[in-house]
Design a protein that fits this description.
The chain has two domains: 30 residues, no CATH class; 131 residues, Jelly Rolls, CATH 2.60.120.260. The chain has three helices and eleven strands. The strands form two sheets. Strands 1, 2, 3, 4, 5, 6, 7, 8 and 11 form a nine-stranded antiparallel sheet that branches. The chain has a two-stranded antiparallel ribbon with strand order 9-10. Helix content is 15%, strand content 37%. It is an alpha+beta fold. It starts with 11 loop residues before the first helix and ends with a strand.
Length: 188
């Protein structure tokens, strides 16, 4: 059988395509990569406080609370708002200035704790100095707030705060429970 005078049955266009397509693909793969790139998309910075940084005041359900906790405060948030403490809950805070601050603790006393321990006496400390001592006889929500002398505070270093309970409740599994802490720190 002859095709255009040849014995090959393939048409001329098919042979040409078989050679041309690989050459075109090879040539397309040899493009030069640019030496420069466009800058990344610019975005506005997040607003608000840095959740990992220390603040003057913190609620137990806010991001960044773990950076404030030094000891004797449960890592578990309960009821979406509070954390249990043990006998010496200790926290740290960063203040922008030294003058005009009051120490504040917002907490509750559970009736079961008070039934086992009797009235609780809590001694409040700021940078290891005794600020006050308060006796609590009733369960429910409590609020402690007292002015702190400016020379006790620092704006360069974190300020340590502790609330020492004279006794705590011991559970069947030997856990120790003190306050139901919802917030702590310094307010103006």
């Amino acid at each position: 059988m002859c095709y255009n005078g040849r014995s090959d049955p393939k048409p001329m266009n098919t042979r040409l395509a078989a050679v041309a397509i690989p050459l075109l693909l090879l040539a397309a793969g040899c493009t030069k990569i640019p030496d420069t790139y466009a800058p990344p998309v610019q975005r506005k910075p997040l607003t608000g406080q840095d959740p990992s940084g220390l603040r003057p005041f913190i609620r137990m359900n806010e991001p960044g609370v773990d950076a404030h906790v030094i000891k004797d405060i449960s890592p578990f948030l309960e009821g979406g708002t509070f954390r249990w403490t043990q006998q010496n809950p200790t926290l740290q805070f960063q203040l922008p200035s030294r003058a005009g601050w009051k120490l504040r603790f917002d907490f509750s006393l559970h009736s079961t704790v008070l039934k086992q321990t009797g009235p609780l006496t809590i001694t409040y400390f700021v940078n290891r100095r005794k600020l006050d001592e308060v006796r609590y006889e009733k369960d429910g929500e409590q609020h402690f707030e007292k002015a702190v002398p400016p020379d006790w505070l620092s704006s360069e270093n974190p300020t340590l705060v502790a609330a020492k309970l004279d006794k705590v409740m011991e559970t069947a599994d030997h856990s120790k429970l003190g306050l139901i802490l919802t917030a702590a720190g310094f307010v103006e």
